[in-house]
From TrEMBL, chain B:
Topology versus the membrane: Multi-pass membrane protein
Highest taxon of source: Bacteria
Organism: Chlorobium limicola (strain DSM 245 / NBRC 103803 / 6330)
NCBIfam families xref list: NDH_I_M
Protein known as: Proton-translocating NADH-quinone oxidoreductase, chain M
Enzyme class: oxidoreductase
Family classification: Belongs to the complex I subunit 4 family.
Amino acid sequence: MHSLIQLSIAVLLLPLLSFVILIFFNKRLPRRGDFIGVGILGTTFALSLYIFWSVVVQAYDPAFRVAWDFTWIDFGNVPGVGPLVIKMGIVIDNLTAIMLAMVTLISFLVHLYSTGYMAGDKHYGRFFAYLGIFTFSMLGIVLSDNLFAIYIFWELVGLSSYLLIGFYFEKDSAADAQKKAFLANRVGDIGMWLGILILYSQFHTFSYQEIFANLAAGKFGMSEAWLTAAGILLFMGCVGKSAQFPLHVWLPDAMEGPTPVSALIHAATMVAAGVYFVARIFVLLTADALHVIAFIGAFTAFMAATIAITQHDIKRVLAYSTVSQLGYMVLGLGVGAYSAALFHLVTHAFFKACLFLGSGAIIHAMHHEQDMRWMGGLRKNMPWTFATFTLATLALAGLPLTSGFMSKDAILAGAIGFANAEGGGIYYLIPFLGFFSAMLTAFYMGRQIWLVFFGESRTHLKPADDHHHGHDAHAAHGHDDHHEEAHGVHEVAWNMRTPLVILAALSIFAVYSPDPLDGAKGWFMSMVPTPETVVGSAPGEAQPHETSSAAGNAAHLLAEAVPGGTHGAETDAHSEGVASEAASEEHGSAAPVHGTTHGEAHGHEFSDPRQAAIAHAAHEAHNPAIVISSIMVVLGISLALIVYVFRIIDPDKTAQSIRPLYLFSFNKWYWDEIYQATFIRGSLVISKVFSWFDTNIIDGIVNGVAVVTKKVAFASGGFDKYVVDGTVNFTAFFVNTTGGILKKLQTGKVQTYVVLLMLAVIGYFVYYFTQLIS
Amino acid sequence: MLSLIVFLPILAGLVILAVPSSQKQIIRMVSLLAAIAQGVLAVLIWQGYDASLPGITAAAGGAPEGSFQFIERLPWINLDLGTMGSLNIEYFLGVDGLSITMVILTALISIIGVLSSWPIQKQVKGYFILFNLLSTAMMGCFVALDFFLFYVFWELMLLPMYFLIGIWGGPNREYAAIKFFLYTLFGSVFMLLVMIGLYFSVTDPVTGNHTFSLVAMASQENYIKDAILGPDNVMWRYAAFIVLFIGFAIKVPMFPFHTWLPDAHVEAPTPISVILAGVLLKLGTYGMMRINFPLFPEVFQASLYVIAVLGAINIIYGAFCALAQQDLKKMVAYSSISHMGYVLLGLAAANTEGMVGALYQMFNHGTITAMLFLLVGVIYDRAHTRQIDKFGGLASYMPVYAAVVTIAWFASLGLPGLSGFISEAFVFVGAFSSETTRNVAIVSVLGIVFGAAYLLWSLQRMFLGKRKPDAAYDLEVGADGHEHIHFHDWKGKLDLDARELVMLVPLAVIVIFLGIYPMPVLGMLTSSINKLVEVLSPVVMTALN
């Protein structure tokens, strides 16, 4: 076993150990055992950092990969299949190493932070236990080498999320939110599960590597549509977990959980697992599946951003921002900007964790006030929080020199390139929504910063009867501090401050790339290159990671010539002769293996023409994207300044003048109400109907049969009594009566008998002679 | 060995007969000892079992007992019927992968059943005698390899069950008991006819006599071509398959023959619910796997789609009905219906993954549902109500109970890491891989969502939030300033007591362990299932014709 594998097993199991210790013994340990949780996670992070160092820094090989597996279930010699085993295993590549380091770092920081934030809570020890099982499950997702394993850990993070959202389970809103989260995720999961079933039914394996190899070899036995369906169904898992439309509704409600949980699970790691999963299966997504993904992502990014601009709750703004940013990542994957999407996953994880922990610090300092309308002026009281929060905000808004700028720009460049390569039209909607949402992001974050940190404290403005505060209230804290003055607000302690500083530092461009304008020049995008599709326009020909240079170049040539890619719709004039013919012939069938060599490709070569075309176009779109997104950010921030700083436009009046739109945004596009009225009510009605059917119809029939049987039994009883028994009794009666009559003959006198005998003899003779005469 | 494990409880019953009925503790201890001894024997059998031998049927020319293990075979009843030949009934026991899992499950659930019978106060002597009789009958069903013997055990089960529900049950117990009794009897009458028909259609390959041996019956070569249930008599074979299937389906219970189950559960005392859900329901699907399907493989192949659809109806219909229930026990009863639907679906897949999933689901449903009913019993003992809306906030006041409930509930909704997930997963894998049942599998995944819905909703209403105004319990502020729960006339421990933990913790450990590492159970059954799939496969049948 490779030493990295051994280490990664330790990394995986240590948080589980933390869970087991803390769930059983937290009450018997000093400080409820929080030091165990923090200590174990610190160790886990150190080990992960070592793995990261070995893989990403030392090896510095985009194709780095070590794997290990063991037989988990042995089905024996299966008829029709042969020996069949289900394996479990671990795979470590660059992406895994990066994710390991990211997850364990944020988890460690959140553990540390929670020692301050959760102090005094009734279930303090249990909180750290739950963080442990969450971290374990999340690392399981990252390390899994197969679909079955990822599904297991997928649902386990769902469980930990359920437990942590409902950490304050005495509150009905928390209990509702945890149930909603689990069920919404389950809806996504059944899609994911069906996707897994489609692939398993063809190849009798869950392993990524074996599935990809089989697909690349063209062994998929069902129609192309099933493959697209498999991709979309697997993506449904991501729709649930990463809160994409239409299953996004659970994430904002999940803010009922303690704020450190919101930072760790519902912003940085678990919700990004959906994106990670789509990245893992990226190579089997067909073009149609990718289109669906791109549109869902773009729409989610846009919709969530429009909701975020009107929310009052500081955590809800961040929650919708998370949904929106996850939409960007999904969009990025959909348009084929694989590296960019994952890059954004990592940068977002750090700055969003920073924002949530910052908001937690504010909420903590403000004694559980979450409504931004009653904040203000906090920059003086909480300078560290202010500085780190602002830096993370700039990264989220996507200002140059931040990490968020590079990653978001790479996604948007990919989106433009995709739209160009796919032939424009409706596809331009995707970059358009992307850029527009970027502006909205800058606006709502500017609004938040201003409302929270600038101006004067508005704590005293809060109506006394407003009881909507304290969404995140600790059971141990009282509710009697409505009118705490801002000057009573203090900066948080070191254990909550340190995580903010570290996370803010990780939002600076230099961590990822030497060039603040181009993430592609950095280590991340070099180490996590876009993989070659196994289901491209050339099934049976394309070989992942092993593209022969001739085929690759030929394909590249073709791709350059045919921006339409698999669709082959348009051809450039200068290469029309070769390409149009090839495109029409090879459309969806086989890649050309002939062709001449071609010049240098852009970093990575694709043998799949569609992928190559998009990569090329995205590269071309890099500079325009920078310009447009910068303009958008400036526009957004300016708008926020105009509205909230210079007060040129009054936000309340504007809201009044466009009231329907405002309400539409404020009420989150009414999705909750729609689902309540349709799916939830519908299910309950069906359940009532079925239950009624069961008791009245089915059981009615059963009881009816019983009643009929009883009636028949009574009838036959009656028959028995009156007819059968009647006959018997009648016979008895008859015999009795006749006997009674006949017994009178039985006189016992010989004379009578002789007379009777004589009569009989005479009668016989009379009969005999009458016969004789006739 | 097998005779011992089957008849130990009856021996205990005879001992109890001699104990004066005032010695309740002795009666209980005798039953417990018998159950534990049964458990030890089950472990010994498990240890001595060679998992590489498939069982199911005998190879042509091989031993007439096939590769069954722990065989005991003696002539039992021999009747000369004159011109019709003779009636040869054997005392024939043995185990293979199908039955050994069920033997272990039965032994386990019997121990749990005795433990959970501890609080029974009414006519303790009679109760435990009947309980032990039931235990023998269940075990006998799983190890009998002679159809007649199987039938004897099958019918023997009815009698104690009828009285256990009818005497020790709830207010409406007589209705429930008679419904259960008549329903099952209805199924077994036809089974008797089919059994006789089979007897005259099958000959023992060694002796040439007619036989009730299920091992011989499972091989189509042993059928007389023109006999009533011989291969030529297609119509009669279909009819026989259908009535047998209904007979077993009633036990499962399969829609639309399921309505006896919620009534029986609601009225039955906790231990009987545990036995009923934990073991008895499995006899239905076990009977299908042991008798119904391998004896009529071609009819089985023709009915796959129908069976799958019936399974899907069980899954979804059961889940919806569970969602509507107000009585917690009734909800759990409907969840049983839903979960047994997975077994039917897996069987209909007719491939290794699906059938392994089905058999594993039978085992897991046994352990998980036993937990569910025990947990329902815990709260019913204390609060004397099972109305879900009469609680609220229990997690704050009974944390250990809430924790165990959470494990059991999540096991039931198929959370990965717990055993129920693996079996349901492979049922779906199998059903989807079979082209016949694929679209049924696609619809059935809805059961995953609605299963989670009713379980989480009940969890929320009973355990989360705060005490409801009309709750079945009160809150008192204790000396430490915290609120404590108070039940009106409950003198025992408020949270789970030692006896309850002794029952629940081992089950929870099994559920978790088998969810992480299923091979200890799966390893025993895969070779048998592979053999069964082969016996049932259309390829083998066409080769025969």
